[in-house]
Amino acid sequence: LTMKSKTMKEKLIRAVSILLSTVTVFALMGCEQANLNVPEAKTETTAEASKVESGDGVTEDATSQYQLEQVVVLSRHNLRAPLSSNGSVPQELTPHQWIEWTAKSSELTTKGGIQETNMGQYFRKWLDKEGLIPENSIPEGEEIRFNARAKQRCRATARYFAAGMLPLADINIEYPSDSNDLEDFMKPNLKFYSDDYAADAQKQVEAMGGDAGFEGLADETRDAIKLIMDTVDMQDSEAYKSGKYGDLMTDGSGYKMAADEEPDVTGAIKTASQVADALILQYYENTDSKAAAFGHDLEQSDWAKIGGLMTRYEEIKFGAPLVSVNIAHPLIQELEDELQNEERKFSFLCAHDCTVFTALCALGVKPYTLPDSIETRTPIGVKILFERWRDQAGQAWYRVDLVYRSIEQIRESSVLSLDNPPMRYDLSFEGVETNEDGLISEADLLGLFDRTLAEYDELLAKYTGETLDKAA
Amino acid sequence: LTMKSKTMKEKLIRAVSILLSTVTVFALMGCEQANLNVPEAKTETTAEASKVESGDGVTEDATSQYQLEQVVVLSRHNLRAPLSSNGSVPQELTPHQWIEWTAKSSELTTKGGIQETNMGQYFRKWLDKEGLIPENSIPEGEEIRFNARAKQRCRATARYFAAGMLPLADINIEYPSDSNDLEDFMKPNLKFYSDDYAADAQKQVEAMGGDAGFEGLADETRDAIKLIMDTVDMQDSEAYKSGKYGDLMTDGSGYKMAADEEPDVTGAIKTASQVADALILQYYENTDSKAAAFGHDLEQSDWAKIGGLMTRYEEIKFGAPLVSVNIAHPLIQELEDELQNEERKFSFLCAHDCTVFTALCALGVKPYTLPDSIETRTPIGVKILFERWRDQAGQAWYRVDLVYRSIEQIRESSVLSLDNPPMRYDLSFEGVETNEDGLISEADLLGLFDRTLAEYDELLAKYTGETLDKAA
């Protein structure tokens, strides 16, 4: 009990000290970055600049004087078939036939399973090289943990990764179900809600479109939506001609929130994003680019534009600080618990793009644009790695990276290895310094989590009247 | 106890009735087929003829009136690095550098893991289509079993296959170890031994070379050995020049047996087979055929010739009936137990090429030559499938097939699916009839196992004086 109080007190001190310096900036700036009207050339420059700016330059060499102690992974599932609930939308909105998906709606595809297996194989080699987990070892006790949301694609992703990483170990993939009392801590729903909260969140969302709000967003996304429509020849589909989906060029979009629910974007941007989702998956699954674009000649920049619409949709839906801090709250707690689990060497938590996205937004990630990806924030199968490294003086440091396959690595099913590694991108966080090797001190890293938890408590108190004590 | 006696009695009756009709033929003919001096064109004709002759023409259509009830799989491991104990031989016997294997000596490679995962994915789709195991099910109780020899490559093969076949299930891969009392029933060693036995077995082995015995085998294999030597430029290697390995063109070969041990081939054929093993693995791993042949231009028929030497080596080492019936005995028992396990829907037992080979030889398989493979008996990752199908009258029937990847499917890492299935070859057995759909009756199939077990008991009694009762 005393121990616990002490930890609590330390956490509060850390949180308050960081809050004082950063919370204002953080709360104001939000988590969005993409502006679809930025010209292409500019986008590339931005990507480069962003890499230099927010990537903290950590390389393998930079960690050579440190010993890897722990890796906590938060992963998006790998390639899936289009979502069941949306299945009819992309099907209805084109006169063309989508490829034959190798899985039922929303489930992991064959290619997704193979790529995640191989990602696990890469981790096996990397963790062995770093001396954390010998490649043929069978972890004991609490050394490793695999957890997934109950969806088939999440559990299957965890399974394939586990087989590739630890082929000799019998791994239990835990997931919340009716027959156990595990918490669904990665569920992307609102954890608290009030009318005032919804109104303020709505304002943050609208602000993404500038002074013009949703009209600004409509203007900004119109070109990308047009490209998506043209690629699937939407105007030749019976459903579109019937008017059932309105006019994606002139209809606006909206934002809906309800207690305990996942927020929702409505209107043209949502419809376009559902078609874009299927298009991008088809582009990943089919190495024939022309066939993937239903016979149209698309440049890679066109695919990036289609991916950009998806990213913008994700930002609108989950990127407002009031939204991400709310939704990600139990996950942030779980992640901090994992990081502080002294026995744990490796954790793998698997859910969705929005899980990765809300966690990073809630933690105050600095804007970033992933290179060699058409999904520049949370590409398929992407993983956040929270890595703890110990220096020779006994001090612990953290590196927070995104690891993902490049477009080509996905489409060509490249075999990843230490010589052909996946993409790795160093993340930075608002108000958090790094040392000369680009690493974050343990106090700062845990402070990052604590300030996010404190922010949640503050919002909870503000909007629902629940106090910190009451919530604790 | 009564039940058991009854079963025993039934088994004996079945065994005796089949023995009477077939044991003489069976004991005389052995399990060898390859003769490396057969001209290439002839070999292809033989392969075709063999396919028509011994393949029983079972197609998917043939089973459409039957319901699949059970599948027992005996699998060879997938792609590995060259064996540790032999590692120095292929390394020493070439001036060239072998490719960088993606695994330690004898362990499953990255490509092997990916291909086995995908084979599991294929089985997942096939078993779902046949209505035996729904693709996202989690088997209960004794429905499934995964067992492997303790070697890394065997356990890892089982793991990858299991992940691909049952991505949602936590699978226990059982294997014999010091910490459990599981029997190593796939160990390729002699189960009984005496001087008389060794002398008789030796005669069977020598007979494979015709009247000239091992000299005949030397003559027959000389061209293939020369091709292997030329491909690795063996004569330019320091080790070969030093005389350490003798003269593979003129030295003979021999056969060694000892109690409880794996039999061994000695001399030129063994040395050549160790180099051929690494060459074939390099050919599978490296899609650049010229690089795989160290810069030489080899035709596919050349690779088949190199593979043929491997097959001949396997036949000499394990193909004599006295040897295969002896070694495979506990596995034959285990397989029959699996087939008679009423709860079991699917079993996966994983070991080596010799495991698959000795089991088939012991069961009296009719000679076969697998198409589209350079390892025409037990290609990498090959599986024997014992499938039980029930007809509409309630009668049970069996199909025994080999399932494997074609050369191209291995080298190009083709993604297997119901539309792009692996190779499937129907096996036939001496003295066993098939029905109009090419299926074997339950009594005949179990009789096949019983006659093999009876043959073992007979040999045991003959060579060691142990009687059936004593052994039982």
Q: Could you say what the CATH architecture of the largest domain in chain A is?
A: 3-Layer(aba) Sandwich
Estimated helix fraction of chain A: 40-55%
Name of the CATH class of the largest domain in chain A: Alpha Beta
Question: What number of domains of chain A?
Answer: 2
Summing up helix and strand content along with how strands pair, one would put the structural category of chain A as alpha/beta
Order of helices and strands of chain A: HHEHHEHEHHHEEHHHHHEHEEHEEHH
Oligomer type: homodimer
CATH superfamily of the largest domain in chain A: Phosphoglycerate mutase-like
Strand content of chain A: 5-15%
Q: What is the CA-CA span between the terminal residues of chain A? A: 14 Å
Outline the biggest β-sheet of chain A.
8 strands, mixed
Q: Give me the Rg of chain A, rounded.
A: 22 Å
Number of strands of chain A: 10
Task: Write the CATH fold name of the largest domain in chain A.
Answer: Rossmann fold
**Model regions low in confidence, pLDDT < 50 over at least 5 residues of chain A:** 18-28, 38-58
Count the helices of chain A. How many? Answer: 17
